[in-house]
Amino acid sequence: MKEEDYQRFKATFESAHDRQKATPLAGLLTSGPDYSRIRECLNQWDTCRQRDEALIGRVRQWLRDEVDAETIENRKQIPPAYLQGLRTLGCLSARIPKSYGGLGLGQCAYSRLLETIASRSEVLALVVSVQQLGVAQGLLSEKKLHPDSIEGEKLRRKYLHRLAETDIGAFCLTTPETGSDPSRLQTVARSSSDGSYFELSGSWDRGGKLYTTLGTVADVFMMLAVVVFPGEEISTLKPRWRITAFLVERDTPGIEIRPLAFCGWHGLPNAAIRLDKVRVSASQQVGEIGEGLKISFMNLGSGRINISAISLGMLKQLTHTARWWGVRRVQGGKPVGEHSLNTEQLVDMHCRTYAAESFLRFVSGCSDRGDTDIRLEAAMLKLFCSHSLMKVADETLQLRGGRGYETHASQASRGETAVPIERLFRSARMLKIGEGGSNILRLYLMRCLLDSSLRDLTLLSQHRTASVLFRLGLQYGRWYFLPSPGCSLSLPASLKTHMSFIHRGKQRLFRLLMNRMMAETLRYCFLRIGNRLTGKPGQLPTPTQSLEQRQLLIGDCAEIALLLSAMAITCIRAADSDKKAEIELASEFCVRAEIEVAHLVRKIRQRGIAREKQIDSLGSKIMNGHYADILEGDTLPWDLPEEKV
Prior knowledge:
The protein is α+β, with helices and mostly antiparallel strands. The protein has helices spanning 3-16, 35-49, 53-66, 69-75, 80-89, 107-118, 122-145, 150-165, 292-298, 300-328, 340-369, 375-400, 402-405, 408-413, 421-430, 438-449, 451-462, 466-481, 493-534, 543-548, 551-575, 580-606, 609-623, 628-631; strands at 169-172, 188-191, 197-202, 209-213, 220-228, 243-249, 255-259, 270-281, 285-286, 330-331, 334-335.
């Protein structure tokens, strides 16, 4: 990414996000996790569990009696009876407040609901999730921004009641030219001369909406577009300042919907949408002009929790199947689960699943408490759960052998006990992409954890006064050299050892990052002095910019931070349980996480700036076709457009 493109992307991100507030994990690198608040959030899950048990029980019974996930898979569509069943049970209005006709569930109950549905059908679970996140959550987010808005309340009264009773909603942000970088959005909302309406336009290859989940069945869309006033052209604007949300009815003239298909998630309604001068009344605008991304990003935390709950439902189904097959299948005179390599896989699967459930309980509890900014924790949760799911799906398929790769229908045709592992494997892969790709989330969570340090680093590069150096020296010197307080909670002896590792690990990670930050600052100062002495013009990238773009370093540090956080949450959950089995699972997960952390620390220390530059150089050569004649010879390549570097 070019420097100017990176700065545009960063500016878009920062303009749509407020600063990360203090959360249980925000101080991971400095003062340490807030263990007491972690325990309180975990307890929130237990507090809510009994209250919504009746609803979960009804949904479970309906899924068992009425829903066959393979019917959705084979027909590549959801039977209307399934959607009606979700509507009747209240699943499609579960998070809509009671004042607007919904059930008003909290996040803990909603996470359990999604987990339960996903254990039967991941497609139906995602439908339930997107129904809440699309139009409904967007309207509720606007209420947080403008609680006294009369126009906003009119829209909520109109559309939330419809969503609770009859309608399906879909959210439309992604376009062919945008993915993780919404600042490139080219959907145009051209204002009329009197400001009474807008005309939305976007073609299949530029500005049209892409990957709109529920797009083929939605009754109303929340569309994000760049507002262009009379006499202006979008090419002359900075789109991020004009991206605005609009509610658009499905039957509005000018909308053309095209269904999409994927390697997995067969039957999930997903669409590309072309917009040909779609006229939308100004009264259908949600929030102020330019607030579209803020409204969108306010939903990300909830969406990531939902994806994680769906992942957990699939994880539990996979671990159940792996355990069953490990006992049932006999090879070499004993069950396959007793062969050491397979035993290793089974242990890893179950420990990861326990850790993923612990993480979900914690973040869902944080959300329900209402006093916590969950963006950081939700990003960590989604990253951990989606990666755990993909690993467990791969290992379960491997354990099942040919039957794991064989379809459910093929197994059933031979009279086998059919288990759809290959379907779950294909579905699992998408969850590393949706609601924030894994690489973007790594960079995001480190941005949150390093926010104050990066601001101080910018200050240090701009002001060379002794007072600034002295203040920052005292602040970081305390964290760098002196041990911060460890965990004061009462824990079993086996878990105390792991909590001590967490404490040492976070200090080691902080020191690694501080060393890199100071090195970038010194390098910047020497280069600036050199430029002044030699009279060279040009602006140098600041230490903050240089550090942020060292993505290999940041990515590995994010993995360490994620593992340390998961260890802490899992240990605290197990410590509060009266079951020895939970302590055993938590302890084993921590042993494995510690090995991963040690490996990552070694990798960071061995890969300095020179090694990163070497990798960048090889990557540039690859993209320019430097090795194509060696590696692509004797192939019949697909007819692809010319590469652009």
